[in-house]
Design goal:
Mean pLDDT: 91
Largest sheet: 3 strands, mixed
Number of domains: 1
Strand order of the largest sheet: 1-3-2
Low-confidence stretches: 1-9
Strand content: under 5%
Oligomer: single chain
Order of helices and strands: HHHHEHHHEEHHHHHHH
Number of strands: 3
Shape: globular
Radius of gyration: 20 Å
Distance between the termini: 31 Å
Length: 388
């Protein structure tokens, strides 16, 4: 009985993780509905001009979506560490755990090529009548030829594979990797011009852009730092299970304050003279994640982790937790769903209509994900379905 109570208590402590993951999944769906239904999307890449937000509603829509990628990488790091330690307690060897992360990371990459890309193609096909919401500018000189495109699943999959070797590291070394990843990224970008011919290996590893053979928005090095920070946070959770969410609140507030100071002095955003009002003040370079971008987004995510720890027993949040428990399945399905729901709007829709479609999509996704969660619960631990 004592073991059962200990297990239940441990599970309850991780409910806020599921809730935060589910919440940012919903925000991610909003961002993709923006592109597939309203045919309006914003992409903040280093070194090139990007579209100005036309009004407060569009800025807020995009700003909320900025929580998603840092949240995904941070929570993936936390989940990897917690998964590994739980499996060690049930008799798994470190080699078997590493093998699991290799397989799951590779599976994420396969999903990108064979499931995600067709969904984006479907959304683009239905949006052929749109004007002004389409292409984006990429840094890097490239005039045609073959290249391999990548998405956020590339960054997640590769970071999971590399993380298979990192989760056993001590806390201080995980934090050092996080810091160095952003220091290196800032230094490397500082040596480049948006018109430089980028090395394909550099594009895959360090700098978003386009080159012969490569196109990426989520290179490995800067995002790996968010994963190792998540691993560090999970180690703190194991050491201080009753205090970790209080630490999350304090650290989140410190991060947001640090953002305000650095942004005011126009430091670490890969741009100078880049704000003239409060909307432009909060317009941050996401590709690659600038230090100010990471500070405010990870800060808000940590604050939300604390908030969800206070709401973890609320039944009305069950749909949010459900989305968090079926994140990869949700990701693939929602792309096809919103691509199809955007078909009646080839030239785009207003922001109000887009929000209505987004909510309808979430209702449909709730029933689809609920079915899938019940389906995979009956599968063995080593099952393919457990990795989705």
């Amino acid at each position: 009985m004592r073991l059962d109570l200990t297990y239940i208590a441990a599970m309850m402590r991780t409910v806020p993780i599921d809730l935060l993951r589910g919440f940012i999944m919903m925000l991610m769906a909003l961002d993709h509905a923006s592109g597939m239904v309203a045919r309006t999307h914003f992409t903040e890449i280093w070194g090139v001009s990007f579209k100005v937000y036309p009004d407060l509603g569009w800025w807020l829509t995009r700003f909320m979506s900025h929580l998603c990628a840092p949240g995904f990488f941070f929570l993936m790091g936390m989940s990897m560490l917690l998964f590994a330690e739980k499996r060690l307690q049930t008799g798994w060897s470190e080699r078997r755990i590493r093998g699991y992360f290799f397989k799951r990371g590779g599976l994420i990459l396969l999903f990108m090529f064979f499931l995600e890309f067709p969904a984006w193609g479907l959304g683009t096909f239905f949006g052929r009548g749109a004007s002004g919401g389409g292409g984006m500018a990429f840094p890097g000189a490239f005039e045609g030829g073959f290249f391999v495109p990548t998405t956020v699943l590339y960054g997640l999959g590769m970071c999971m594979i590399l993380g298979a070797f990192l989760w056993k590291l001590p806390k201080w070394l995980l934090v050092l990797i996080s810091v160095l990843s952003f220091v290196f990224s800032a230094w490397y970008i500082g040596q480049l011009s948006a018109d430089d011919v980028l090395n394909p290996l550099a594009v895959f590893l360090a700098v978003p852009g386009l080159s012969v053979g490569a196109m990426t928005l989520y290179p490995i090095i800067p995002w790996l730092g968010v994963v190792t920070f998540g691993m560090f946070w999970a180690k703190l959770m194991r050491e201080f299970p009753d205090k970790i969410y209080g630490y999350s609140l304090v650290t989140g507030l410190v991060f947001v304050l640090a953002f305000m100071v650095l942004r005011f002095f126009e430091l670490t955003n890969f741009q100078m003279n880049s704000y003239h009002d409060w909307i432009s003040f909060f317009t941050l370079i996401k590709y690659p994640p600038s230090m100010v971008f990471i500070l405010i987004t990870c800060g808000i995510n940590l604050i939300l982790l604390f908030v969800f720890s206070k709401l973890s027993n609320q039944k009305w949040l069950r749909p949010v937790r459900l989305f968090g428990q079926t994140a990869m399945f949700f990701y693939i399905v929602h792309l096809y769903l919103y691509a199809l729901m955007g078909a009646p709007f080839p030239a785009g829709a207003s922001i109000g209509v887009m929000y209505v479609v987004w909510v309808i999509g979430l209702v449909l996704l709730y029933f689809i994900c609920d079915w899938f969660l019940n389906f995979k619960r009956n599968k063995a631990d080593g099952s393919f379905w457990k990795m989705i």
